[in-house]
Amino acid sequence: MDHLLKPIEKQTLAQTVMDRLIEYIRTGEIPPGKALPSQHELADQLAVSRPVLREAMQGLASMGVVEIRPGSGCYVRDPHASMDHEALFDIYSHEGAIEVLDARLAIEVELAAKAATRVTEAEIVEMNEILDRLKRTIARGRPTVHLTSDFHQALARAGHNQPLYRMAQLLTHARVVQGMRVENALPDVAAAEYESHKVLLDAVVSRDPAEARAAMREHIEKAHGCEEQINALQFQIRAARST
């Protein structure tokens, strides 16, 4: 046969929501700079949970289609921004996860140093509020990955360097996926998330770029260690199944 049917590609629910939102945004009813309906309203209209909608929004933010403004809402940025958004929803291999962490070392470490000299009082308040929500979430035994991602995005904005911030945004979904990998494989790690992110904020508030840089480097290197533990566990599972 000259023309073979192509297999149907599997999509996550969040990816399907992304596709629907892109179609909606590109109708032009909401021009750039204007806010989308609230996440509660969008979740109701799409008949999906808030976590699924939130993951889709973070994917759109990574593409540059929308901008998420904490405490304000989601705003249309560039309806026609283009990126292979299917790649944003890949389940990262061990090698891919390590590459993401290496990219974070290159970008987030320097943003933390810049934040130490440029952070505003309002941004410090915002990050403290995220940490308060994180502490309550840990106490309730709920997943923390989206709150820790919110914290890292807030810290990146506090660096006040748009090119670096946009690069950090491109890693948003990868950071969320990686966080999910860690929480699923190493559930005990979640209990220490508040303390580890409080160390980052304290380093930024110290106004010492070297201290902030070192704190972020140590934070991401710990994530490297978690990834190595996950890889070792997966190897043990595969070995046990093959016997």
Write the layout of secondary structure elements.
Elements: H1 13-25, H2 39-46, H3 50-63, E1 66-69, E2 73-76, H4 94-118, H5 121-139, H6 145-157, H7 162-170, H8 172-185, H9 193-205, H10 209-242
Antiparallel strand pairs: 1-2
Helix pairs in contact: 1-3, 2-3, 4-6, 4-7, 4-9, 4-10, 5-6, 5-9, 6-8, 8-10, 9-10
Total strands: 2
Text of the CATH class of the largest domain: Mainly Alpha
- Rounded mean pLDDT is 84
Biggest sheet architecture: 2 strands, antiparallel
The ordered H/E elements are HHHEEHHHHHHH
Description:
The termini are far apart. The protein has a two-stranded antiparallel sheet with strand order 1-2. Helix 4 crosses helix 6 and helix 5 runs antiparallel to helix 9. The chain folds into two domains: 64 residues, Arc Repressor Mutant, subunit A (Orthogonal Bundle); 153 residues, GntR ligand-binding domain-like (Four Helix Bundle (Hemerythrin (Met), subunit A), Up-down Bundle). Strand 1 and strand 2 form a beta hairpin. The chain is mostly helical and 243 residues long.
List keywords for this structure.
243 residues; Arc Repressor Mutant, subunit A; 10 helices; mainly alpha; single chain; two-stranded antiparallel sheet; Four Helix Bundle (Hemerythrin (Met), subunit A); 2 strands
